[in-house]
Design a protein that fits this description.
Blueprint: H1 2-16, E1 31-32, E2 35-41, E3 51-59, E4 64-72, E5 76-82, E6 87-88, E7 92-99, E8 101-106, E9 109-111, E10 117-120, E11 122-125, E12 131-134, E13 136-143, H2 150-160, E14 169-174, E15 179-186, E16 189-197, E17 200-201, E18 210-213, E19 216-218, E20 221-222, E21 226-228, E22 231-235, E23 238-242, E24 244-246, E25 251-253, E26 259-261, E27 265-267, H3 269-278, E28 284-288
């Protein structure tokens, strides 16, 4: 490709009788040592959430080259400069967003996070007989916003499933997100009013999935030197309860966001206290893998 470009430049020089750009170094190659990704951050549906926008660049064959991060606080244009190894113009790179965006758009194609696209570097002679070298790509990005909050996502999911409850409340446990979300039915729609981190069953003793009812309250389950409680039982020995608490009231194992229980859903003591105060018996408990 480089030889074709240079041949074209020489031919144009002879035909037009004018001089073009003089290349430094080896005239047989056009070499660059960086790739510039220009990102236009658009106005999102809601209020933009300031944060770190991140991109990764790979070779066309998939070899990792560089990560780049920029703090994005407003809409506008940002440049991600990747100091990659020297390459000849005509080289292709794979690029993808890793964080900070809802989706990007490249060549009229919307791409989600971690969905790569291929960008090709190139050179040409413009109408003014000038050599133009492109060592980058230009994309647009829709940043994360308040409309992408967990509450909205959770509401969209549970309302699309047609979940019903014998009370005005409903609890959804998302195992993939280690999250317990509480919903209140208003005007025929589930509205997410609270959400909390949780731990779930270990791989050898997984938390069950499906639709259940909160059918029994118990103050605590006592063990040797520690306890869990209060208890919200929803299926046989399965329950939502506190993390492990020593008999003196201190944490024995307060971890959340882990696969560590014997199958129950563990939440922090302050969370279970709130749940048993507000959630009535017979409330639907919906547990999913996603």
């Amino acid at each position: 490709m480089i030889k074709k470009i240079l041949s074209l430049l020489l031919a144009l020089t002879l035909m037009l009788g004018c001089s073009l750009i003089t290349f430094a170094g080896d005239v047989n190659k056009l070499v660059e040592d960086e790739f510039v990704l220009t990102v236009d951050v658009l106005n999102p549906d809601g209020k933009l959430i300031p944060g770190t926008m991140s991109f990764t660049i790979l070779t066309e064959e998939g070899e990792w080259l560089y990560n780049r991060h920029i703090e994005v606080k407003n809409t506008g244009r940002y440049e991600f400069v990747f100091p990659v190894p020297e390459y000849e113009i005509g080289e292709k790179f794979k690029i993808f967003a890793t964080a900070g965006v809802k989706y990007i758009n490249y060549c009229d194609t919307d791409l989600e996070v971690n969905k790569e696209f291929i960008a090709e570097t190139y050179a040409y002679v413009n109408e003014n007989n000038e050599l133009v070298i492109s060592n980058g790509a230009h994309i647009t990005a829709c940043p994360l916003s308040t409309s992408d909050s967990w509450e909205l996502k959770a509401e969209n999911i549970v309302n699309s499933k047609g979940i019903t409850s014998d009370t005005p409340y409903m609890i959804w446990v998302s195992k993939a997100n280690y999250t317990v979300s509480v919903f209140l039915k208003e005007n025929g729609r589930w509205n997410c009013i609270k959400h909390f981190p949780c731990s779930i069953g270990a791989p050898s003793s997984p938390t069950v999935t499906g639709e259940f009812k909160y059918y029994q309250y118990q103050a605590r389950w006592q063990y040797d030197g520690y306890y869990v409680g209060p208890i919200m039982r929803f299926y046989n020995g399965y329950a939502i309860h506190s993390t492990l608490v020593n008999n003196n009231g201190t944490d024995r194992d307060g971890r959340v966001g882990k696969m560590i229980s014997h199958g129950c859903v563990r939440v922090r003591p302050e969370t279970i206290s709130w749940l048993v105060d507000y959630i009535p018996l017979q409330t639907k408990i919906y547990i999913t893998n996603n």
